[in-house]
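Field guide to reading this record: the first block holds the primary sequence, the second block holds the structure written as C-alpha cells, and the final block holds curator observations. Each block starts with its own label. This record concerns Dihydrofolate reductase, catalogued under organism Maribacter algicola.

BLOCK 1 — SEQUENCE
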Amino acid sequence: MIAAAGEDDSLGKDNDLLWHLPDDFKRFKRLTSGHKIIMGRKTFESFPKPLPNRVHIIITRDRNYQVNCDDCLVVHSLEEAIDLIVDEEAYIIGGGEIYKQGKKYADSIELTRVHGRFNADTFFPSIDQENWELVAEEYHPTDEKHSYDFTYLTYKRKLKESNKFARPSF
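BLOCK 2 — STRUCTURE
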C-alpha cells in the first residue's frame, strides 16, 4: 500500500487531497511507475486523467461502470483486483475503504506521514505495531514548495513464527 496521511491518519476531504507536496508526488511516481495500481472508483475519478506508465485496476460496485482507457481494468471487489496480480509488485493507492480492506493483503506500506492534523472525511487505517515493522524513515522539512513537513515511512509486515515460511500473496 502507498499513501500520504496526517498524524491523525487523515487522507482527504470531498475526494481531494489535503496538501500539496511535490516531492511526495515524485516519490509516488517513482515507486508506482511500471506497476499495477489498485484503487476505488472515487480515487480514480479524482485524477484529471489516468496516470502514465501504470495499469489502473479500478474497484466499483457499479456493474455497469466503464472506463475508456487502455491501461484501465474495472473489477467489482478487492479480491478480483488481487487476482489480477501474478508474481509482480502492485500498489493499493486508495481510498480509505480500499486501504482498510487491503491491509490484510499487503506485505509493505509506503506511508508519507504529513506532520499535522487535518479536517478530513477519509482516513488511513491505523498501523498495528504488533504486525508491522518500521524499516526505513526519512524526514522532509517544510520549505518553499512544501507547506508541511513530512516523513517517509516504510513498513514491512512481520511474519508470525508459526507462519514464517508463508509469503503474503500481495
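BLOCK 3 — OBSERVATIONS
The two ends are 10 Å apart (CA to CA).
The chain is about 15% helix and 35% strand.
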